[in-house]
Every structure is written in structure tokens, then in C-alpha cells.
Specification:
With 294 residues, the protein is mainly alpha-helical. It is built from 12 helices and no strands. It is 78% helix and 0% strand. The longest helix has 41 residues.
Length: 294
């Protein structure tokens, strides 16, 4: 495939290849057909099945006590995991992007660890550490502390699977921005907090919001790790994905799809916010690159 780099006149569309137009339209058609078959149609079917037996059945399914408990637990786990990942992500990204230190590559590798480890394996690790037969199990039992099959275990599993999302979004953004502005602030006499709130934070705000949105979406939709440590106790340790699984296994399809539609709505809202923030983040990175090139 030959590629031709052409000058881009102001107000004209970018042309990057000299392939015939029908090739472009075939590729676009294949991509749209794939998305329709595997994304759009299943998404529409979720809402169709959720509302097929009427609005009353739908409302009853998402307001019954076990569903409300699952919603509350999902929100609680996300409310704890996301702020902790927010603090860790900013600190890790700042250290990696702004400083040189021994073990930097190891820190980056550890941040990526949840991407390479199956969530089920992560859940089993927590069971081996905090379970009744685990390393700390006897001591936890003696002190009446329960982590596995309880909310603390669910929060720990949620934190583990969502660790990379904010840090991984901020690291390239901070590296692209460099350290010139922070160094100038130090020369002018600013302390660490002033540099962070008045220089660093304004420059990373869109990337930070983008990573937070992704982190929150993953926290609410996590299934594998949470399933291992939760114990599937109805009304107590079931998050929304686990509640959907239980309803589906009980052949209560209307209720299962009704609860699943809440997660689908969350995904749609996340996509809308992601698209908006992504455009602003891209613009911010382009401005940073222009600033570095001048």
C-alpha cells in the first residue's frame, strides 16, 4: 500500500493515502457492520428485554430491596476506590513524569500489573491473604475482622483492578508537558502545593477527569475479582453485576435485564463524557507539544 504525504491546505480535508474511494467506503462499511452486530444490537436488546413486560415490572425490579442493596454497594465501592486511585494516580504520575529515581521502571511495571493479571486471579490472591485459611486469616478471625465475603474485600478487589486507569492517563500527559513551568515556579519562590494547584493541576485537569471517568466505569462494572471475594450473599455482598448474574441464573430474565440496563445506561453516560473529555484532553496535549516545540 503506497502512502503519500500531501500538504494540508487550510480548511481542506486531510488526505493520507491515494487508495481509491471504494476501498475507504468498504472499510467504513465493514467497521460499521461489525459495531452494529456486536455492540449496537446487543445494547438495544438489553433495553428491549428490560422493558418488554412493562414499566411497572421494570421499576419493581430495580427498586426491590436486593437490587437497592446491590446499587448501594456498587456506589460505595466506587466511592472509596476512585478517590484512592485518584490520589495514587496523581502521585505516581507526578513522580514518574517529573523525577528520575532508581526503580522507576519497576513502578511503571507494577502500575500495569492489573492489566496483565486476570481479575479472578486478583480475587484469589486476596482470598489467600485474608481468607479464613489464608496468611492473615487466623489473626483476623481472633480480632473479629472480616475482609473476605464482606465489603472490605469487595473494595480491595475494586481498587486493585482500577489502579492503572488514572496513572496511565496522566503519565504521558505530564511527560509531554515537561518540567519547565514547575521549574519556573520554583525560581519565583512557589512551594510544592502552590506548584501543584496553580501549575500542574490546571495543565492535567482534562486528562485527570478522563482517567477518573474510566476508573469509575470499571469500578462499577467489575465482575471477576469481586465475584471471588464477595461470597454472593444476596442483599449484603452483591454488586450490580453479581446481582444480574444471580437473577439470570434464576431465570428471572425481566429483572436481570432491568438491572443490566442500569449498567448499560452508566456505560452510555461514560461514553458521552469520555468523548467530550477526550477531545479536550487531545487539544491540551497538542498545545503542550506546540509549547515544547517553540
Amino acid at each position: 500500500m503506497s502512502t503519500t504525504v500531501l500538504p494540508i491546505p487550510v480548511g481542506k480535508r486531510r488526505v493520507v493515502t491515494d487508495e481509491p474511494g471504494w476501498v475507504r467506503w468498504v472499510l467504513i462499511g465493514l467497521a460499521l457492520a461489525f459495531l452494529a452486530l456486536f455492540l449496537f444490537i446487543p445494547l438495544i436488546l438489553v433495553f428491549y428485554e428490560a422493558l418488554k413486560k412493562g414499566v411497572d415490572v421494570y421499576v419493581a425490579a430495580i427498586t426491590e430491596p436486593d437490587a437497592v442493596a446491590a446499587i448501594q454497594l456498587t456506589l460505595t465501592a466506587a466511592a472509596i476506590a476512585v478517590p484512592l486511585n485518584l490520589i495514587f494516580g496523581i502521585a505516581a504520575a507526578w513522580a514518574i513524569a517529573k523525577f528520575e529515581f532508581r526503580g522507576k521502571s519497576l513502578l511503571i511495571t507494577l502500575i500495569d500489573l492489573p492489566f496483565s493479571v486476570s481479575p479472578v486471579v486478583a480475587g484469589l490472591i486476596y482470598v489467600l491473604i485474608f481468607g479464613l485459611q489464608g496468611w492473615l486469616g487466623p489473626w483476623l478471625a481472633e480480632n473479629d475482622i472480616k475482609i473476605i465475603f464482606a465489603i472490605p474485600g469487595i473494595v480491595l478487589a475494586t481498587i486493585f483492578v482500577t489502579v492503572p486507569f488514572i496513572a496511565r492517563e496522566l503519565i504521558p500527559l505530564m511527560q509531554a508537558q515537561g518540567t519547565e513551568e514547575e521549574e519556573a515556579a520554583v525560581v519565583l519562590g512557589a512551594n510544592g502545593w502552590q506548584i501543584f494547584f496553580r501549575v500542574t493541576l490546571p495543565n492535567i485537569k482534562w486528562g485527570l477527569l478522563y482517567g477518573t471517568i474510566l476508573c469509575n466505569a470499571r469500578a462499577m462494572g467489575e465482575f471477576g475479582a469481586v465475584s471471588v471475594v464477595s461470597g454472593h450473599i444476596r442483599g449484603s455482598t452483591n454488586t450490580l453485576p453479581l446481582h444480574v448474574e444471580i437473577l439470570y441464573n434464576e431465570y428471572n430474565f425481566a429483572a436481570a435485564f432491568a438491572v443490566a440496563s442500569l449498567l448499560a445506561l452508566l456505560a452510555l453516560v461514560t461514553l458521552a463524557l469520555k468523548a467530550f473529555v477526550e477531545s479536550r484532553n487531545k487539544q491540551q496535549m497538542e498545545n503542550a507539544n506546540e509549547h515544547r516545540s517553540t
